[in-house]
Amino acid sequence: MKIITNEPFIAKRKKIANILMPLALLFLGGGFFLNLYTLQTPQREVNPMYFYIIMGSLIVGLMLSSISSGLINRWVKEPRADQVLTTVLKGFSKKFTLFNYVIRPPHIMVGQNKIFVVICKPQNGEVSVTNNKWKWKFSFWRLLRFFAIEPLGNPTYEAKSHVQELVNFLREHFTEEELSPMIIEPVIVFTDASITLTVNDSDIPALTGKELKQFIRQSGKEKSGNGNKYVKVVKLLTDTVKQANQ
Fold first, then answer.
1. Are 26 and 60 in contact, with CB atoms under 8 Å apart?
2. What is the bridge-based pairing of β-strands 126-130 and 196-199?
3. What is the mean pLDDT of residues 71-89?
4. Backbone φ, ψ for residue 126 (5° rounding)
5. Hey, which of 44, 100, 191, 204 has its CA 20 to 30 A from 58?
6. How far lies 116's CA from each of 40, 41, 51, 80, 214, in Å?
7. Which secondary-structure segment (H or E) carries 183?
8. What would the pLDDT profile of 147-164 be if each residue is shown by its tens digit?
């Protein structure tokens, strides 16, 4: 399997995460120490503006902390989603190409007969889907790490949205005649090995990481009659990442 990952894209987000976290600590620490100062100062000598400065510093600090925690968990902490996919999909022939962070759908796998849009979710614990309605079982540990955890959201809606984004991108480079026979299939993958996933009814296949390889192997056998269209998609995405990083 060929793997093309937009490394500069990842590096940029790592850099942002590493900048935001110290800034968050600076604002939080500044607000905390200024508050201590006002508590030790006679009330009549305290400037009323200090209250607004303290509150502003704490609010900005919390916002930056929330953003940086999310970035760190997604881009700094390993294994990242692209690394998990690389591991679980190891062994496919070079007729398959995995693209990571090249365009808006973060993970796209192009085979001989089909394009897979892979939606990676990092949640652990117990997750279930019934009639396309998702539920992530509450845990106290999750509450403690509220700002650092990516919300589950609605993976079904997210998957359909990513497919549409890919279709819109391809429409800029292919005619409708070329595009219409192509098969684009979304799949939702939970990358944390400790996940307990229950699927009762879902429009989009929902799998654990260890199930993904077999799913693509079986689903990729379907014939689409597109000839070399998928080869052109691989070239297009390869050229796109090269142009983006020139």
1. no
2. parallel
3. 93
4. -110, 120
5. 44
6. 62, 63, 53, 19, 13
7. none
8. 567 888 899 999 999 999
What tens digit of pLDDT does each residue of 94-131 get?
Answer: 889 999 999 989 999 998 889 999 999 999 889 999 99
CB atoms within 10 A of CB 134: 19
User: Among candidates 179, 188, 32, which has minimal Cα distance to 122?
Assistant: 188
Query: Within 10 A of 216 (CB to CB), how many other CB atoms are there?
Result: 22
Residue 128's DSSP bridge partners are 135, 198
Instruction: Give the pLDDT of residue 28.
Output: 92
| Amino acid present at 191 | T
C-alpha span between 202 and 145 (Å, rounded): 28
Residue 186 has pLDDT above 90, yes or no: yes
Cα dist from 166 to 47, 101, 130, 179, whole Å? 56, 12, 26, 11
pTM of the model: 0.88
> Do residues 116 and 213 touch, judged by C-beta distance below 8 A?
no
Residues 99 and 237 sit within 8 Å (Cβ to Cβ): yes
Look at residue 31 and tell me whether its pLDDT is greater than 60: yes
